[in-house]
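Subject: Sanity check before I submit

Could someone independently write out the structure tokens for this chain? I want to compare against mine line by line before I put it in a report. The sequence has 255 residues.
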Amino acid sequence: MKIMEALGLSDREVVSFVGGGGKTSLMFRLNREIPVSRRVIMTTTTKIYMPAADKYPTVLLSDKRPIKKTLQNILQSGARPVLGQQLLPDNKVKGFSAERLDSLIYENNGFADFVLVEADGSKGRSLKGYLDYEPVVPRSTTVLVVVIGADAIGRALDDSVVHRPETVSKMIGLKPGAIIEPENIAGLIIHPLGVLRSCPPGARIVPFINKTDCLKSRDEAYKLAKLLLGGRIKSVILGSAISKNPVIDIIDLRL
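---
Independent answer below. Compare away.
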């Protein structure tokens, strides 16, 4: 099954990716799945590495550049651009504020069928502790994909697997160095000061438990998925963003 199908995407969506490592891979994987007849823009509210120029043109937009005409020409050519503000010294593309991105989306309504947004940074770690201004999710988001690294299960709470482990420790009461269990991850994800804090009220929330294929047994991943179900979370995807078959299973409230 494809990610697009697993997410239940309609003909027009703004999909924002938050959470642990694998967001960029998942975003570009979804882009490749979207039919070539559809117009797609990729961007970020944080920063991402410059993509391969032969596959994705990087377009740096400033207030002085005729944005509307630029986007229209690029999308009409069939290209799928990565939008940003500037190129940083570490070869990363700096993105937009959530407010600026919302303005771009609303001002250019109708040009793109899909806008894919990397709306969070985790330094490649599987889990993350959040500061009070994170994640940076645009209000135009219709689907929020929460990426969780399954490889954190059974690992110690430290900075090798968690971005800001001290923050996570304070959030869920797990001592530094303690073993991370599915219950701990579920508590972190649904914590009122965590990754869902800035999710727009109308957006669908779909956790994606990444790297499930790396586990010796998937039992703990299934346990985590079932713990996450409820409230605004109606389904959870088990998968691997870089595998040939990225979706392993979908757990929903009907099960």
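---
OP: Matches mine. For the report I'm noting this point. The mean pLDDT is 93.
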